[in-house]
Amino acid sequence: MDFERRVVSKRGEPLKLTPAEYNLLSHFLQNPDRPLTRDMILKSVWGYESFPNTRTVDAHVVRLRQKLEADPNAPRHFLTVHGVGYRFALGVTRSSLLRVAYRASGSPLKIFELFHGLWLEHPEDDL
């Protein structure tokens, strides 16, 4: 995902996402492994202050699963947290995270800061 150009690709091929799908994906990526309620998502992604229908989130998550998951019926990244909402599981290796971080920042110092921050938040993980 190229945040600056608002471009998303899967295995090197560009994906067509609606603005709402892009914003939802961006929100998930900014909150990895964090349980998010539908209301939290509606407020952050759509800017809703009142929540008449939270099924909007469900419909958009289904579309992201269809476009991004290897098997949308057995998602590995866009996970349902029953009774809560959703959680985005990164499921990345250390080397792939390093490649993405370097492409995004181009700076070894920024990569160090990224990994240091992740380690402080999740010291039990093997980063």
Query: How many distinct folded domains?
Result: 2
Radius of gyration: 15 Å
Largest sheet: 3 strands, antiparallel
For the secondary structure, the number of strands is 5
Strand content: 5-15%
Average pLDDT over all residues:
79
- Ranges where pLDDT stays below 50 over 5 or more residues in a row are 122-127
Identify the CATH homologous superfamily of the largest domain. Answer: Winged helix-like DNA-binding domain superfamily/Winged helix DNA-binding domain
At the first level of CATH, the class of the largest domain is Mainly Alpha
Please name the CATH topology of the largest domain.
Answer: Arc Repressor Mutant, subunit A
Question: Which outline best applies?
Answer: globular
Order of helices and strands: EEHEHHEEHH
Distance between the termini: 21 Å
Assembly annotation: single chain
Helix count from the secondary structure assignment? 5
CATH architecture of the largest domain: Orthogonal Bundle
Description:
- Helices cover 48% and strands 11% of the residues.
- The protein has helices at residues 19-30, 38-46, 55-68, 94-105, 108-121; strands at 9-10, 13-14, 36-37, 78-81, 85-88.
- The strands form 2 sheets. The chain has a 3-stranded antiparallel β-sheet with strand order 3-5-4.
- Strand 4 and strand 5 (85-88) form a beta hairpin.
- Helix 1 crosses helix 2 and helix 1 (19-30) packs across helix 3 (55-68).
- The protein is globular.
- The two termini are 21 Å apart.
- Mean pLDDT is 79; it is low at 122-127.
Write the layout of secondary structure elements.
Layout: E1 9-10, E2 13-14, H1 19-30, E3 36-37, H2 38-46, H3 55-68, E4 78-81, E5 85-88, H4 94-105, H5 108-121
Antiparallel strand pairs: 1-2, 3-5, 4-5
